[in-house]
Structure formats: structure tokens, C-alpha cells
Amino acid sequence: MAVAHGLHRGLPATRKRRIPHDMTTRIEKDSLGEFLVPADAWYGIQTARAVANFPISGRGPDRDFIVAHARIKIAAARVNARAGWLEASLAREIERAAAAIVKGEHHGEFVVDRFQAGAGTSHNMNTNEVIANLANAALGGTRGVYHPVHPNDHVNMGQSTNDTIPTAIRLAALAKLARLVATTHDMARAFDTLALRERDTVKSGRTHLQDAVPTTLGRELAAYAWTLKRCARRIQDTAVDLGDLGLGGSAVGTGLNTAPHYPKQVAQELAALTGESVRAARDLAAQMQSMADLMQLSAAVRGLALELTRIANDLRLMASGPRTGLAEIVLPAVQPGSSIMPGKVNPVMLEMLNQVCYQVIGQDAAVAAMTQAGQLELNVMMPALGSALFDMMDWLTQAIRAVTDKALVGIVAARERCLDYAHTSVGLATLLNRAIGYSAAARVAQESEASGRPIAELVATHGLMDAEAFAKLVADAAGNGEG
């Protein structure tokens, strides 16, 4: 579809003469004057102006956000029709047009850049115009004429950008939250499966990246699973506050130009449309002033990213090698690792996850900055705040799914290598503490490090413990087969 801004550059909106156009465009008028719109566009003049004004990122709105905003228009039309404020036939066509958008139709008509007018007025009008034009076409009208359905008077009835946009952000975030939590649980289950399989794989623990007492590979992997489940719970917990909607507050939270009982009823409609536990906020003004609930979600997602970074780095360390690293696990090979070194295979899925996690941390910092950037009755940073939150949730969901499918499933434990490390670790001297005391055990450790002889050999040489008893001590210390 042709983009409007390339057709009218340099023509002031206040000029009286008509703007020349051809069959590929149509002329629409608003309070600023005339403007060209692509003839086949379902959007209108205010959207076209926004496309011209904001050629910033080249990225259109998020899909979940488009759907959430369309659902708001459905809910509003229903409530306004019941109140007798909106003619039933118009409400019906508004709902049909918005429902088509919810199903995924006409998403190419949402063309305003993510970086746009503060608060999201441009996107609100993009939605209003698309729905109005679709509804009018169904009623026998013409695109761009806005009769009998008007974008502001009918599609936007009882609403404001200031209450629809933050509501749409919250609804979109709830949709993404469910997917992110589910995907995180999938990864946790993958770790649990590996942990059960490797519950008897004894290995050397490491603290400060130095030899420590024995553990099992299963215990390490199970700990990752437990941590991920806790991260998922923290993210899920934010859904409660996200369900407080400010829709119905209108421009500044006073409910100006809304039908009786509109906030409660429109929230009930949205609960039915989305399946989410949403409700009218007790303070409608607060939900357009404060983005703290979105910031809390962002912080919880950042927490997951930080843990995933740590886990990815651990797995990369354990998979390092194959000759000069730890080589305790072998990751599935998904692509050649080098353009110059034949046969090299890199932990690319985990490297990708690290990169995504660092981007998530950056987006969270942006969300935090924009959360405090509101003034008085409105946070005008909402378009970019929503975009940052949507990105971090989508990227992490997709990265977690990819790593689970292509890296975790298919991990092979190098059990002999793990056991060899466990039995040659200087950390085994710790097992002698109760038998000979810390100082004597330290001397054994120092002798092992200096001579290269294993702790088990030195224990037998000095008559401290026979080999069989020491091997049992190692297995018991590792918690072999437990938990």
C-alpha cells in the first residue's frame, strides 16, 4: 500500500487551494485542513498525518496491542448501545469491524510508527478510522466520508486516548504474560527431565570457579528448574494489578462524556472478550497517571532474564571444550561454529539467549525511566513504554522456546568425565574434616595440588581411609540419588 507522506510533502495544511491527487489517493479534511490518503486505505487523515510525522523506527504496532485496542472498541460499542447513546445498527457494524481486526484481518492498516504522539493518540485514531471506514462500507458508505459512522463521535464514544491506550497496553501485556509463563514452565520441565535422568551423575562442585565438594549434575539442573518456576510465579503475580483497568476515566479520570455505569460495564465486557480477570480500577485517574503495575511486570521479566543469563553461562561453561574445557555436557550441534576452523561447534543457542537477555535488561531500564516520566494526569510515554515491554516479553518467550527445543532437549552428559573430575578434585579434602580435622585435611589438599596425586590415593597412602570407604564418602557427600 502506498504511504501517504510521500504524496504531500511541503504542502501546508492551512492552504486554501485543493491538493492535487490522482486515482491512487483521496483527499480528506480535518481541523487542520486537507491531506492526501491512499485511496485504498481503510485508515484516514489523522493516521496519514501520523505516518508523515513519525517516520522513526519503521515498526508498526504490536499485534496483541492492535487486538486489545479493537476489543476495547467492541466493549465500548456494546455498553454505549445498551445505554441508548449509540444507535444499535451503528454499534453492530462497529463491533463487526472490530471483531474482524481481533481475528487478524486488516492488521496491515495499522501503520503508525511505535514512536509517535505522546499517549498514543495517533494509534487510537488509526483504530477509530479503520473501524469507521469498515463499518461505513458495510452500511453502503464511502471510505473517508465518515457517515453514518464517525471515528470520533461513534467509534470513540465515551473514550479517550488517555484511558484506551493504557488499557490496551495492560490487556496486551496480560496476553503475552500467559505465553511467557507457559514457555518458562516448559523450560523448567525440560531441566527437571534432565535432572531426573542425571540424578546419579556425580561431579565436582565448583565455587569461585575452583574445586569444591562433590555434587550431582542432576542437582545442578534441578536447581535451574526450581529457579525458573519461581521466576514464572513472580511474573504471574503481577497479573493481579494489571487487571485494574482505567477504561471509563475518559480524559483525566473523571469519566467525562461516559454513559452511566460505563467503567464497570465496559470492564465486564472486556473480561468476557479476553478471558482475563479484569475489573474497573477503584481509582480511574491513577491508571492513566501511574504505570507502576507495568513497571513491576517489566522488573519481573528482567529478573527472569538475569537468571537465564546465569544459567546459560553455566551451561556454556559445562559444555566448554571439547578438549581444553570442562566438557561435562555435550550440547546438540545446530550449525557449524566457525568459518575458518573446521569441525568447530559453538553453543550458539545459549549465546543467542544471552544476547536477548541483555536486550531485555535494556528495555526494562527504558520502562523504568518512562514510568517516572509522566506528568500530572497523564503519562505521555505510553507508546514507547508499551513497545519496550512488548518487545522484552516477546523476545524472551521466543528465545526460551528456541533454547528449550534446540539446546536443552538433546543434551548428553559426559558421565565419565564428571566422575573423573569428582574423584580428582582437590575439594575432596573437605570430606576429611570430621575424620582428621581442618588443618590436617588442608595439608592433604596442598599435597594433592602440589603432587598432582588424587585425594583418594593420598588418603590410602597415609592410612587415613581405605579406597572403598572413601569412595562411599564421596557418593554420600554428593547426595547421589537424592532430591
Query: In the CATH hierarchy, what is the superfamily of the largest domain?
Result: Fumarase/aspartase (Central domain)
Helix content: 55-70%
CATH architecture of the largest domain: Up-down Bundle
How many alpha or pi helices? 18
Number of strands: 8
Largest sheet: 2 strands, antiparallel
The helix/strand series, from N terminus to C terminus, equals EEHHHHHHEEHHEHEHHEHHEHHHHH
The best one-word shape is elongated
Distance between the termini: 60 Å
> Overall pLDDT, averaged?
92
Please write the CATH class name of the largest domain.
Mainly Alpha
CATH topology-level name of the largest domain: Fumarase C, Chain A, domain 2
How many separate structural domains? Answer: 3
Strand line-up in the sheet with most strands: 1-2
